[in-house]
Amino acid sequence: MSITPPESGTSARVRVQRFGTFLSNMVMPNIGAFIAWGLLTALFIEKGWITALTDQWGDDSWVARIGGWGDYASGGIVAPMITYLLPILIGATGGRIVYDTRGAVVGAIATMGVIAGAEVPMFMGAMIVGPLGGWAIKKLDALWHGKVRPGFEMLVNNFSAGICGGVLAVAGFFGIGPLVSAFSEFAGDVVDFLVDHGLLPLTSVFIEPAKVLFLNNAINHGILTPLGTSQASETGKSILFLLEANPGPGLGLLLAYAVFGRGAAKLSAPGAAIIHFLGGIHEIYFPYVLMKPKLIVATIAGGMTGVFINVLFGSGLRAPAAPGSIIAVYAQTASGSFLGVTLSVVGAVLVTFVVAALLLKTDRVTDEPDLAEATAAMEAMKGKRSIASAALSSNDTVAISTISSIVFACDAGMGSSAMGASVLRRKIESAGFAEVSVVNQAIANLTDSYDLVVTHKDLADRARERTPSAIHVTIDDFMNSPEYDEIVAMIERVNRVSAPVDDEPVQKDPTAGTDVFALDSIVLSGQAGTRADAINEAGRLLVAVGAVDASYVDSMHEREQSVSTYMGNGLAIPHGTNGAKTEVRHTGISLVRYPEAIDWNGKPVEFVIGIAATGDDHLALLNRIAQVFVDGDQVARLRAARTPSEVKAVLDNGHD
């Protein structure tokens, strides 16, 4: 049922993403516990915020009792939480991921073994034995599935879980615990070596590119959080919590787009900056890097700057900053580290901004994707059909009765997916389809029960694996994706066509009954020799048939300067800017065929189709044109057409 079927095989990037997500999924659901531990640590340890406010708290005070210092050095809340609570939660979560509740129970038992067999917090040990416990009990259950006598199921289930968990706890105590302790000590020595030799900033060379491939949560919560928490338990703070979570590089990049960007990327960047910096949703700036991959240099430079400043000032956080908001960062900043942390964020912002601004300012490429334009609709021209037309095409294997459930999926199921789902939900409700549910979910938790799945294009393969029977829509921009409008259009067509008609007429194509493609607007032998002249030629035809005012042609040139309208397959579709819609009198298209291809900013163009649309009528026009130009036989018919009537027949009937 997927409109865009998954590719065969699994790429290395997808496998790495899947493994990284598995690690982070053991930590992410328990971030609230990490925050609770971090706040208790910040407030009640001997050098905490409360004890720093007054000297009245003695070694036998209630503050010392909670913090576990003074006369209560062997008790308190802080130490038992990091020693027992957090690792057991991680181990139980890992077991649950593999084998639900039984896996969680055995995973927790096994985790207790590695905790008792080590002298450092066993986060990594829990990440090993938790899933191992879930896998082991799952395999044991499979051995005697269907062979247990009725009435003995509970007895067998309880004893098998207990025995399995006990065996793994012993193995963890004598084997896994000491091994993980040795690895933790080695990792700590590596970090100390990097810090002592000023090399820790080099980690940004690996961290920043990995983040934009949606490995941010895997890096932060799967690797850095366990190491950082172990370090913080000994020193009271860790710089590792800021290697990935520093919001400075993302903010600097978005500010550079806001000042030196073009089109909707420039317009959407300020809002994205607020969501990123205050909301902590780092995923929102990833598409801006993916638009121009060379900008990764700016984020690497900014990340290295932030790490260098933190190393210089010896600053760090007490616990993970989740989400990566400046608010969460300050909430977990260790006492004495506020200046260093602040300067690290500011420095990262400034360096990223300067480098990104230089790259954007000197960039002369014009045929690049623009976040606010119909990116997917334009990509459809290059070989992928529009989701709205494909959903109702009789030639597809897709059979949709109605769309009632939509899920917006991302790596962690929190920041970016929650924001995207919110935007899409408002659009769907505004269109009058409040009964359509829109939720957000982590890809790892998806079930094949949704009608439509929306996710970022870099995560699409993993989403398709989990929901093979759903319609899949991929996006580039979480806030202003043009696919949101296409989804709404598809719901309008599918749900209303599928609904009981009674006395209500079926909704038709908005262009039905209107001759938006007049014969007078078709030229079979264009005279233009350059891109600019071709735009003028197509625009004058729209003016001649009364579709637009003469000033609309100027806006077509303005559009071409911000984003190329070259579509591939010898086609370009110049059209006006959004601000020029007031100059459109009615929806219309023009077509000019050129006997010799025109150089369209380095690309050969044989057909130039001018478009003018009121409202969202252009979506229907794009759908119709897309269906023709992805079909080689239809393009051949256009090349062979001898009269405007033959051209019109091809485009009018391209969807039949």
How would you sum up the global shape?
elongated
Tell me how many strands there are. Answer: 9
Biggest pleated-sheet summary: 5 strands, mixed
User: Helical percent range?
Assistant: 55-70%
Distance between the termini: 20 Å
H/I helix tally: 24
- What is the residue-averaged pLDDT? 77
Q: Per DSSP, what share of the residues sits in E-state strands of 2 or more residues?
A: 5-15%
Strand order of the largest sheet: 5-8-9-7-6
CA gyration radius, whole angstroms: 30 Å
Q: Find the structural class using helix and strand composition.
A: alpha/beta
Note poorly predicted spans.
Answer: 1-9, 365-399, 500-514
In short:
With 656 residues, the chain is an alpha/beta fold. It has 24 helices and 9 strands.
Protein traits:
alpha/beta; 656 residues; 24 helices; four-stranded parallel beta sheet; elongated; 9 strands; five-stranded mixed beta sheet
Q: What does this entry look like structurally?
A:
The chain is of the alpha/beta class. It has helices spanning 12-27, 31-44, 49-53, 62-67, 78-116, 123-143, 153-196, 204-235, 248-260, 263-279, 286-291, 296-313, 326-331, 338-361, 375-381, 387-392, 415-430, 460-466, 483-498, 531-544, 552-562, 617-629, 632-640, 644-652; strands spanning 405-410, 437-442, 452-456, 471-475, 522-523, 566-568, 571-572, 588-600, 603-612. The strands form two sheets. A five-stranded mixed beta sheet has the order 5-8-9-7-6. The protein has a four-stranded parallel beta sheet with strand order 2-1-3-4, sandwiched between helices. Helix 1 crosses helix 5, helix 1 (12-27) packs parallel to helix 8 (204-235) and helix 9 (248-260) crosses helix 12 (296-313). It is elongated and about 95 Å long. Residues 1-9, 365-399 and 500-514 have low confidence and may be disordered.
